[in-house]
Amino acid sequence: MTTLQTEQHGAKAHSDGDWENRVPVQTRSDRLKSANIADFADVTGREVNWKYTPVAELAELLSGELADGASALEISEAEGVEVTSVPMDSELVGRGGLPEDRAAANAWGQAGTAQRILLTSEERQTVTVKRTALTSTPTAAHTIIEAAAQANALVILENTGDANLTETVEIVVGEGANLTVVSLQEWNEGAVHLASHNAVVARDGNLQHIVVSLGGKIVRVNPSIHLDGQGANGEAYGAYFADAGQHLEHQVYIDHNAPHTRSRVAYKGALQGEAAHAVWIGDVLIRRVATGTDSYEENRNLTLTEGTRADSIPNLEIETGDIEGAGHASTTGRFDEEHIFYLQSRGISEDEARKLVVRGFLFEVIQRIGNEQIEERLQAAIEAELQQSVLA
């Protein structure tokens, strides 16, 4: 006797058990968010957000005990700037968003206190936050940068010296505020730095987030910008230069969660030397409520020598058809020979022509910082990198 099968093939649990809980997270917005490290499984390197990262070298930051790195910050004074230490259980903590990976949750749980920088001046102010006193001791940190309604400021995070650091930077942009946050990674050669930058932008607020990663052995800076108010604008720019054996990673998330929001993402990188590795993952989510959205993201990589690797993955999720525009682009390759030929025809040597192209390529991002002294310093650092290069 033949019995008809009425259930859908594959609908039953497999014999390996726990079938219902093994469905992978399909979208960026569905990832677990928690300040409790126990909610995150051990990192194996097979996870979608860790599979390009050398996790074997990060065990202490992912699961170990961490020192409190709050005292390592030096914050400059400016009009309308208030700096305070707040406990991690304060209502002021967590407004930018909760951790989305184990390293961030580990930092959250062991940071001890959060350093809050409140900006209230409507006249453009520049604040520098320097971190130079860290060591190879595994360390946690938590910083809150908050621009009150209508405030206008440039905040520069300068990271230099040694480090073995996992941290969260919360960025809160009030209604009509205009905030630029620049994160500079100029660490020493052996430094390790994992950072989650969680930002929320209110109605008509504007956030320009800029990352420049040049130094360090392993650097992973992941900005998440949530445009939660109508008319909010979020711009994420990045420049990086990876040398032999260096791992520079940036995972960018833009969440359009209100009508008529706008975003622009542009990261540019150069790579040289054996095993130089750059990772860029860009996720843009346009939610159902985000009608009238205007969004675009891109990543460009220049491979200057043999032996480098650049992973570039743009992703776009759109839940409404009523948008102004959305798109993404990604390129990885060598020099444009037409540009090189043009410069050579003007009497410039081939080697110098290639270096000029790299300078211009990265300076397009650096010049957005809006601080001449910092821009000149970064240009000098890139120039020093190029002087050691033998460009193919």
Automatic annotation (TrEMBL):
Compositional bias (Basic and acidic residues): 9-21
Segments of this protein annotated with the region Disordered: 1-24
Record-linked SUPFAM superfamilies: Stabilizer of iron transporter SufD (SSF101960)
A Pfam family annotated for this UniProt entry: SUFBD_core
InterPro entries reported for this sequence: Fe-S_cluster_assembly_SufBD, SUF_FeS_clus_asmbl_SufBD_core, SUF_FeS_clus_asmbl_SufBD_sf, SUF_FeS_clus_asmbl_SufD
Domain SUF system FeS cluster assembly SufBD core positions: 137-361
NCBIfam families named in the record: sufD (TIGR01981)
PANTHER family: PROTEIN ABCI7, CHLOROPLASTIC
Similarity field: Belongs to the iron-sulfur cluster assembly SufBD family.
Protein name (database record): Fe-S cluster assembly protein SufD
Species per Swiss-Prot/TrEMBL record: Leucobacter chromiireducens subsp. chromiireducens
